Amino acid sequence: MANATRQLDPTPAELGYAMPAEWEKHEATWLGWPHNPTDWPDKLDTIRWVYGEMVRKIAPGERVRILVRNAAEQQLARRYLQRAGADLRRVQFIVHPTNRGWTRDSGPIFVRRRVKGRSDTAIVHFHFNAWAKYPDWQKDRRVPETAARLLRKRLFHAECRGRDFVIEGGGIEVNGAGTLLTTEECYLDPKVQVRNPGLGRGEIEDTLKRYLGVTNVQWLVAGPVGDDTHGHIDDICRFVNRKTVVLIRETNRKDINHRPLAENWERIQDVRLEDGSKPEVVPLPMPAPIYFDGYRLPASYANFYIANAAVIVPTFNDPNDRVALGILAELFPDRPVVGIHAVDLVLGFGSLHCLTQQQPA
To answer: What is the pTM of this model?
Structure first.
């Protein structure tokens, strides 16, 4: 389809679609089976067992749709999931070649509307390009198209100025009522990992509004050191309900993360919700620094995932694990909050939220 033709089509917002909040009811969670050894050097087998634990916790409340590259990988995944105790009756395998497994960023981003009392969902294609950093993204970019065909959903191609508009699911956070949070580091940096060259704040905000149905875009500053995505919001600040966010805080003034995260705490004072009110802000601690082979890894409790049956939270063998789990348990009284060991997982520069993508009911 030519760009000129696409531009004539109505946008999701014009048709009444908007992106729901993550805590709203899901039909399914999407995952991509891990296979790229460069994501988890020497630890790929360990990561497969982490996936088993994730599916075991998610499947009781919803279907789990897993991308596999071929039939042999499907059989491999089945063996791991079965031995981990996951309910395979709730798992659907989808054969689709992928470069990596970070489905939050490359997978289908769903929007929803209500028409004549019925709910209708569609998919927005945001043209994943491996965070404007790596050369191998061509297989991942096609995932939304495969999802649209499989589910028979309408597919919207996000664009601005007649060219593809690029964001990732981990770079945006919505409350389902009109407000979207993102960061300047991720989408406004003019030199580092530039997703949309030449586009300014106003054009990016307008495009997010047109394709995600939000009315209010708010910007924090930057994320923790070691974040391969250059500032994804899902390592920093998350909505837990329409009016409340958790925001990570580093209390150790000698830690390299102290200053950039403190800037977010300064900025959050100016953030307003869609109705003009201030959000309630709950601090979430940081674990002690985690290094692998000399690299600081972006370990953050903010990278939790809200499934129907549970909130799964990355844990790091750290005293703050129980603090973070306790804070989130109070904020999600309607579902259990459970920790999943993520010291190995974060070696891939991401965690539970980065691997998952919700499909709203």
So the answer is: 0.96
